[in-house]
Amino acid sequence: MNNILMNVCGILIDIHEKELASEEKISFFTGCSNFQSIYEKYNTVRFLLRRMELGFEKESYAELRSAALCEEISCEALVEIVLHAVVDKAIVMQGLESIYLEAGAEKNAQKCRQIYELVCAKPLPVAYCQKNDECC
User: Fold this and answer.
1) What is the pLDDT of residue 12?
2) What superkingdom heads the lineage (predicted)?
């Protein structure tokens, strides 16, 4: 459990640094009063991004779409969470790009496109193998 919390804290620090560097008006931490509320928000966003990754209907991650469309969560925060918590980053980055294009947020859509192109250049960090009858 301690390793998980340390990992999440590292991601949260990355989010904070990226938001400061980009001079975003939006902060991932807005509305959070303590670590528990920050952790719950992180897990909620991560869960919704995983739903997007797994091809669920748009309604199943409507809260995430709404937050992105209404600029309640920064693009930097979403990108950091995708890079750390999602396996098939390309699918999610395409989804985020389409959300930002729908919102007319060209700058954020362009960020998502750039990340999409970078992750497409790398293979998925998952290897599949055939079942070997001898070992199972």
Assistant:
1) 94
2) Bacteria
Residues 40, 29: Cα–Cα separation, whole Å = 11
pLDDT at residue 136 is higher than 50: no
Contact 49, 82 (CB under 8 A): yes
Query: d(Cα 10, Cα 102) in Å, to the nearest integer?
Result: 31
Alpha-carbon distance of 11 to 80, in angstroms, equals 7
Q: How far is CA 23 from CA 26, 76, 132, in A?
A: 9, 10, 53
Q: Give 54-90 pLDDT, tens digit per residue.
A: 999 999 999 999 998 888 899 999 999 999 999 999 9
Give the pLDDT score at 10: 93
Amino acid at 55: G
* Ordered alpha helix ranges (H), 1-136: 2-22, 35-53, 62-69, 75-85, 89-103, 106-120
